[in-house]
Design brief:
This protein has 116 residues and is of the alpha+beta class. Helices cover 36% and strands 33% of the residues. The protein contains three helices and six strands. The protein has helices spanning 2-22, 62-68, 70-83, and strands at residues 26-29, 39-43, 46-54, 87-93, 97-104, 107-111. It has a six-stranded mixed β-sheet. The longest helix is centred in the first third of the chain and has 21 residues, at 2-22. The radius of gyration is 13 Å and the shape is globular.
């Protein structure tokens, strides 16, 4: 079961990587399950840190994401505080595709696509 979760997680990271590359970003996948981000993307002088997640069913709204994934968001807020560069949380479902959330020290907000 764990191997299946790992494979599904890696697949969504590759989907995100391909999405970023289509928009002209150079993308590096981070190593290790303990890293708070899965991808670091750069384009010109812009850098973006991305955490990806694949869910079976869609999330209702930003409030559900903030509550359900509180631990992930706290870790991403720490990344933002350290690097002071854009950090996003991307959620993928087969029914909806991608939903994107900006992570800031004060909370999260849903955005359309990659915002740097």
């Amino acid at each position: 079961m764990v191997a299946g979760n790992f494979t599904r997680g890696r697949r969504v990271e590759y989907l995100a990587r391909d999405h970023l590359r289509e928009q002209g970003y150079c993308v590096v996948r981070t190593a290790g399950a303990r890293s708070p981000v899965d991808l670091v993307a750069g384009k010109h002088r812009e850098v973006l840190f991305v955490r990806t997640l694949r869910l079976r069913s869609p999330v209702a709204d930003v409030r559900e994401v903030a509550t359900r994934f509180r631990g992930d968001i706290v870790r991403l807020q720490e990344v933002y505080r350290r690097v002071e560069l854009p950090v996003q949380f991307w959620i993928f479902t087969d029914r909806e595709g991608w939903r994107f959330f900006d992570v800031r020290p004060g909370g999260i907000s849903e955005v359309r696509g990659v915002c740097v």
